[in-house]
Structure prediction request, 473 residues.
Amino acid sequence: MALLPLDGRGDVTSLVDVSAEMPDQGAAISYPVTAPGANGDAWLMVRVGADPQGRRDGVLYHYSLATGTWTRETMIASAVGYSFYADDLTVDDSGRVHILWEWGPWPAGPYRHLGSYVVYDPATKVFRDVAGTTLTAPVRPTDPGATVWRTFAPGETVNTVSPDAPAVQTAKMAVADGQLVGVSYRYAQQGSTAFDVHWATWSGAGWTDQTLIDTHALGGGIDTIAAVDATRSGSETRVYAVLSMPDCGTARSQVVMLSSTGSAWSATAIGAPVSGQQRLRAATAADGSDVLYLSAPEKGTLTYARVPRTGTPSSSATVADVVAGIRGDSGGVNLARTGTATASSQLRTDTGPERAIDGVCTDASRWISATGDAHPTFTVTWAQAQPLELVRVRSGYSVGDPALSVLRDFAVEARTAAGWTQIGSFTGNTAGTVTANAGGVVADAVRLVIQTPSASTTNVARVYEVEAIAVAP
Ligand SMILES: [Ca+2]
Prediction:
């Protein structure tokens, strides 16, 4: 299916389906990536299955607005045993087509390799690498030259598909003044199942690489989602990425913008954290501002954002600052998850205190006190005293008014060498999550001393989780 604005206005009311006129009808086509030409023409990069030959090729199509016809412009890249994964396509002001892709094992696989970039000139039908060297079409993964911006690590091949082996996944480029600015991409290094975000640039002599989001350094189960983009306007380069972080048994995601006018990068959170994944696409408007489309498939939402290039407050924040702001802590270990929980009572056998330290925040995973226990207590003890950053208490029930089912009046105490010490006190609480700052106190246990369990008719304590976050090393 191809829907194109035939009058060139870019007006959705003028979209016409011209897919029946496309070449290669019936071919096994996947991974379509489109780009407009400066003259309103449409360019389309796809993967075409040549499975009987053991390959899946990258092919470029062109729709001419002037003649109203499709042509199969050229085969971009092809190799037996390899599968082409289209990443990004940009047509610059001089009409040259910038092409970004990665190679996967034939026929398909989620872990890819050999991130690649070439420029195709429709006027001369010639492919060149980033250094300007002419290439023979179709481009091969074994071609010499500067085509590959992410080469194999030692021992890596196109058939390396283990989750903790080196892999590329997703790439987008920024092009300005007819030149590649850089490539943002996700990369998992040997031994890691998480994908970092990198930035590759051509120095004139070779590819250089920066790690913009180092998931391992961020700790606490941080990963990225397969959604990146890059833009450039004026002297400012931006990379957009999506962080993923665990949140009591579910995952939350946060869009982050990385900005640079030199070699240093600053980080800014874009929008609020969202439960589940987010996808994004960025494009730069004529005034330099970026237009972002953010979709949250699990929420079923599509959000439009405009990020101005001017008037943006300068920021020296790092990705770690952004992560800490969202997570609410510095990424230290949750000591409660290593501990043993006890309580003054429990409502049923399946609402015991162990359910408040299991890392899950569902209704079926709560400690619930007994109805006759007017002032219940809950204690979690771990093996070795350690400095505590904070204690987070998540309580309530997903049914009914949450302000009534949460813990109402209670204190949070930490057990130090001097005995039990209060680190937080809450009166008339209506929040599902509250945090007591422990200020680095060295403790081997935390307890809740509850005066009023709730404001609901059945007056019991309902605690999803007690999290005792150690000071990050
Ligand atoms: Ca739980």
In short: DSSP finds three helices and 31 strands in the chain.
